[in-house]
Each structure stands twice: as structure tokens, then as C-alpha cells.
């Protein structure tokens, strides 16, 4: 599926890849992920797309974003929009599809192979356009979760489908256990 001399780029839909890994019961080790694809070809860029809450004092994704930024990833972020839905629930909206599509289209003339880490069917026209420009496209997602995380039309359009679960041994690490607060440990010791 990969050729050593081909120029490739990774386009990672952060929230989609995170959800797919979670559904399969493992966390992605992004250092190993980048190393794996450097081994498979000439990696030009590894893009990571995510929306961030602007006014959050501490965003749980901030340490990951900072680490990726310092470790060879091209970070593409934007402020997420917060709103209240009709049921009064607080919701966050932060779609990065356009940013990912623009970057892929701009880089296409210098690419042989694009690897898209997403199962979002909205990317089907992008994949088709990249293919018309002579770029092979692999999709990394999963059909092993319930429900499957990849849209059927995206999987059919891609040149290759890579099952994320089959990369588990190469790019995965077990999910971290939730941290137990010291006060909980003390309470449990006294019960």
C-alpha cells in the first residue's frame, strides 16, 4: 500500500481519531504514529486539526496540542463556538473540515499519497478531488466499533482503507486510568 519513495502527508481529524481510538479501547501514541508513517514513505507533513475552547482556563486537550506542536506536527486549531441547544444543554461546535480540505488541496501537487485519519463522509468529495489530481488516498478509521466510525461512501471512495484496530500494536497505548484524587484515597482508606 505504501512505497518508500512516495511523498506523503497525514491529515488527522483530531476529534474523529480520538473517538475512534476510544471506541476501540486504546489511546493513540502520536510519536509512534509519526514514526510509523515516516518509515512508510517520505513524510512531508503531519497535520492535526482540532477546535479549542477559547475561554477555558484549562482545556484537557491543551497539553496534547502543545506536545504535538513541539514534536513535528503542523497544528491547525480554531476557537470552538459554545451554545445552548433547544433542550438547554451546553454544546460545543468546532468543525475543522474546511481547514483540512484547503490544506489537502494546496499540498496535492506535491503529494503522491494522502493519509486521512477520519471516517467523516463529508470528506468524500475531497478524496475524489485529490484522486483526480493523481494523489492516492488512504483512510484510517474503524469498522470494528459499534456503530462503525467510517461512512460507507468515504470507504468506497478511498484507494485504501486502513483499519485503525490493526494499527493498535504499532501506534497504540492502553488508555490511561482516571486519576484518583488524594482525598478519594483517604476517604476509601477510612471506610
In brief:
By secondary structure, the chain is α/β, with parallel strands linked by helices. It is 37% helix and 28% strand.
What percentage of residues falls in helices of 4 or more residues? Answer: 25-40%
Q: How many strand units?
A: 9
Give the C-alpha Rg.
Answer: 18 Å
At CATH level 2, the architecture is 3-Layer(aba) Sandwich
Order of helices and strands: EHEHEHEEHEHEHEHEH
Q: Average pLDDT across residues?
A: 89
CATH topology: Rossmann fold
Low-pLDDT runs of 5+ residues are: 182-191
- Helix vs. strand class: alpha/beta
Question: What is the CATH C-level name?
Answer: Alpha Beta
N-C termini distance: 57 Å
Reported for the largest beta sheet, the result is: 7 strands, mixed
Overall form = globular
Strand content: 25-35%
Tally of domains = 1
Q: Superfamily at the CATH H level?
A: 5'-nuclease
Number of helices: 8
Major beta sheet, strand line-up: 5-4-3-1-6-7-8
Word description of this protein:
By secondary structure, this protein is of the alpha/beta class. It has one domain: 3-Layer(aba) Sandwich (Rossmann fold), CATH 3.40.50.1010. The protein has 8 helices and 9 strands. The strands form 2 sheets. It has a 7-stranded mixed beta sheet with strand order 5-4-3-1-6-7-8. The protein has a two-stranded antiparallel ribbon with strand order 2-9. The chain is globular.
Amino acid at each position: 500500500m505504501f512505497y518508500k519513495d512516495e511523498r506523503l502527508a497525514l491529515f488527522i481529524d483530531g476529534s474523529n481519531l480520538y473517538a475512534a481510538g476510544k471506541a476501540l479501547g486504546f489511546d493513540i501514541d502520536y510519536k509512534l504514529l509519526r514514526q510509523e508513517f515516516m518509515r512508510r514513505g517520505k513524510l512531508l507533513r503531519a497535520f492535526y486539526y482540532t477546535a479549542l475552547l477559547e475561554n477555558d482556563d484549562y482545556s484537557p486537550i491543551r497539553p496534547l496540542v502543545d506536545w504535538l506542536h513541539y514534536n513535528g506536527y503542523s497544528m491547525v486549531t480554531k476557537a470552538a463556538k459554545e451554545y445552548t441547544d433547544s433542550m438547554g444543554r451546553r454544546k460545543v461546535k468546532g468543525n475543522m473540515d474546511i481547514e483540512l480540505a484547503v490544506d489537502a488541496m494546496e499540498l496535492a501537487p506535491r503529494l503522491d499519497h494522502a493519509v486521512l485519519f477520519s471516517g467523516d463522509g463529508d470528506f468524500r468529495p475531497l478524496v475524489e478531488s485529490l484522486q483526480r489530481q493523481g494523489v492516492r488516498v488512504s483512510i484510517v478509521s474503524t469498522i470494528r466499533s459499534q456503530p462503525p466510525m467510517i461512512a460507507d461512501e468515504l470507504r468506497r471512495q478511498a484507494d485504501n482503507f486502513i483499519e485503525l484496530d490493526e494499527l493498535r500494536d504499532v501506534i497504540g497505548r492502553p488508555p490511561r486510568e482516571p486519576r484518583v484524587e488524594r482525598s478519594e484515597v483517604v476517604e476509601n482508606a477510612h471506610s
